[in-house]
C-alpha cells in the first residue's frame, strides 16, 4: 500500500468514526439531512471530508455520479464521493448495503480504484470539480457545513 493511500485511509476512517460518534451524541438531531447519516448525505459528507483532507494538505476532486433507471418510476439515484490521485474516497457507500441493485455495497470507508459499485454511476465532466474548501460555497451552505464540520472535528483524534 502506498504511503498516500495509507494516509488517506487513515484520515477518511478517522473522519467517518468522528461523524458516527457525533451522531451518537446527538450532534445532528437538528439537521434534517445529517440526522439520517449515512443515508442521503453523501454530498455534504464529501464536502466535509474534502475540507478535512485539505486541512491535512491533501487536495481532492468532488465527484457526483448519477444512475438512471430504465423504469421511469424509479427515476435516478445520485451519489457523491471524492477522488484523490485517481483513487476514490467514499465514506458513505454503506448507505446502499441493503440494496441488491447496488451489490449490497457495505463499505463504510472505501479508498481505491474504481469498483463495480462506483461504476454504476455515470459521471459527466461537469460533475467533477476541484474542491477548494467549504469557504468557497454560498453563505447559507457555508455556514451550515462549517457548523457540522466543527461538531465532527470535536471527535477527531488527530
Structure report:
This protein is of the alpha+beta class and 158 residues long. Helix content is 35%, strand content 17%. It has four helices and five strands. It has helices at 3-24, 42-55, 116-119, 139-153, and strands at 61-68, 76-84, 87-90, 110-112, 128-130. Strands 4-3-2-1-5 form a five-stranded antiparallel β-sheet, covered by helices on one side. A hairpin with a 2-residue loop joins strand 2 and strand 3 (87-90). The model has no long low-confidence stretch (mean pLDDT 94).
Low-pLDDT sequence parts: none
Rough outline: globular
- Please state the structural category: alpha+beta
Give the biggest sheet: 5 strands, antiparallel
- Report the sheet-strand fraction: 15-25%
User: Helical stretch count?
Assistant: 4
Rounded radius of gyration (Å):
15 Å
Amino- and carboxy-terminal Cα gap = 22 Å
* Mean pLDDT figure: 94
Biggest sheet strand line-up: 4-3-2-1-5
Percentage of residues assigned to helices = 25-40%
Task: Note the run of SSEs as H and E.
Answer: HHEEEEHEH
Counted beta strands: 5
